[in-house]
TrEMBL record:
Residues 229-395 form the Shedu protein SduA C-terminal domain. It comes from Chryseobacterium taichungense. InterPro entries: SduA_C. This is Shedu protein SduA C-terminal domain-containing protein. It comes from the Bacteria.
Length: 408
């Protein structure tokens, strides 16, 4: 059994053999080989053994060693330098110095992994630098992180499963009925090797909750009396909401000049709103005030409700804009990147590659279930080009988002 004792400015390793009959094996081994290895990790010579008499008056000793003093051997381990115990080179490793913060409660498994694997012999193969455990040193490894690291050392069971996996992969080429040890080994690794990073959702939960609740309240207030807003003011307000709900978009440009390459020549057109995502790709958005009768007809045509002119006209308009942008292509990318250069990040370029359309318009709260079903058919018809979102759908998305955050 190994324990550590802090005495004066020294850190002492206390070793008590598990069997009384093996008391003399340390001195016998040192005489025969010149050194002894404890748990295949701690290397000691005769000069590192301390006199037991030095500890006879130490009252704390009872917490660390066997009451029979003669069966416990005391070894030098580390000396206090400033706020760190510096481990004597050669005991654990020769390649670099190991510093342990003075208030760190030492455990044997900090140095010896399962089945007597030397932790610092493994670390030596990864880093040649001095190692600081705990404390305020800029390069110190926090104790909590170090303990997590120790969990990744393979134990005897894992090593056995690994050997079996390697053997089974070879023997299956020649023998029938060989156990699929590779699958067993991989299943074991799946349960062991996992990373718990910072829970970002939990960190930003309250902030996001306030954001979405504020947006929901604002949208509800706007919808109570949309007549107090002009078309331009309404677009400005809704655009702010869209940029918050769709974080992929980082910029929005208004009154954007584009060129339409038509059969009878090139004509200048103007987009009301253009969205730019974080990769530079553009999409087209149309924002309409939520007039009550703007989506589906009240009467049926051949047993179906059909889109009103306001909806079908807006879809046609946005499809044309997308058509113009695709034909404008590289020349349009250069023109738009140059025109908005001062508003774009350094080195950022606008790209045109099959833009999508987004339409925000109309209400669903006054539609019958059949009208809503037919409206869904209309939306799915244009889904590959245009996403049609009503204000009631926006309210619903916000409500579900808030509900989900509240469950976290």
């Amino acid at each position: 059994m190994i324990n550590f004792l802090k005495k004066d400015d020294r850190l002492i390793l206390c070793y008590t053999p598990e069997y009384a009959g093996s008391v003399n094996w340390i001195t016998d081994t040192i005489k025969a080989k010149g050194l002894v290895k404890l748990k295949k990790t701690f290397r000691y010579t005769e000069g590192d053994i301390l006199n037991n008499a030095e500890f006879e008056e130490t009252t704390e000793i009872d917490d660390y060693v066997d009451p029979e003093m003669e069966v416990t051997t005391f070894f030098r381990f580390a000396e206090l330098t400033a706020d760190y115990y510096k481990v004597k080179r050669g005991i654990l490793i020769d390649n670099f110095d190991i510093f342990i913060y003075k208030n760190v409660p030492l455990k044997t498994n900090f140095f010896v992994a399962d089945s007597d694997v030397s932790v610092f012999q493994v670390i030596k193969n990864i880093s040649p630098n001095d190692f600081y455990l705990g404390g305020d040193n800029p390069s110190a490894v926090p104790v909590e992180e170090f303990e997590k690291l120790l969990k990744h050392f393979p134990n005897s069971y894992e090593r056995r499963k690994y050997v079996e996996a390697r053997l089974s992969s070879l023997l299956r080429n020649y023998l029938e009925g060989v156990k699929d040890a590779e699958k067993v080994y991989q299943k074991y690794l799946d349960t062991k090797l996992f990373m718990h990073g910072t829970n970002l959702t939990e960190i930003f939960r309250n902030v996001e909750l306030v954001k979405y609740q504020t947006i929901l309240e604002k949208l509800r207030e706007m919808l109570k009396d949309e007549n107090q807003y002009s078309e331009h003011q309404w677009q400005e307000e809704i655009l702010q909401i869209i940029l918050l709900l769709y974080p992929k978009y980082i910029l929005a440009f208004k009154s954007v000049p584009i060129q339409a390459r038509l059969a009878d020549g090139i004509k200048d057109k103007q987009l009301d709103l253009l969205l730019v995502d974080s990769n530079g790709y553009i999409d087209v958005i149309e924002i309409k005030k939520p007039f009550e009768n703007a989506i589906m007809t009240k009467g049926v045509y051949r047993e179906n409700y059909i889109p009103l002119r306001e909806l079908s006209g807006t879809v046609m308009q946005i499809e044309k804009y997308i058509y113009y942008l695709n034909r404008w292509s590289l020349e349009g990318e250069f023109f738009l990147s140059k025109r908005y250069k001062t508003q774009l990040p350094e080195g950022f370029e606008i790209k045109i590659a099959n833009p999508n359309g987004l339409i925000i318009m109309g209400r669903e709260n006054n539609l019958s279930s059949q009208q809503k079903n037919d409206f869904e058919v209309v939306k799915r018809k244009y889904k590959n080009i245009v996403d049609i979102i009503t204000y009631d759908n926006l309210l619903e998305r916000l409500h579900f988002t808030i509900e989900q955050f509240q469950k976290i």
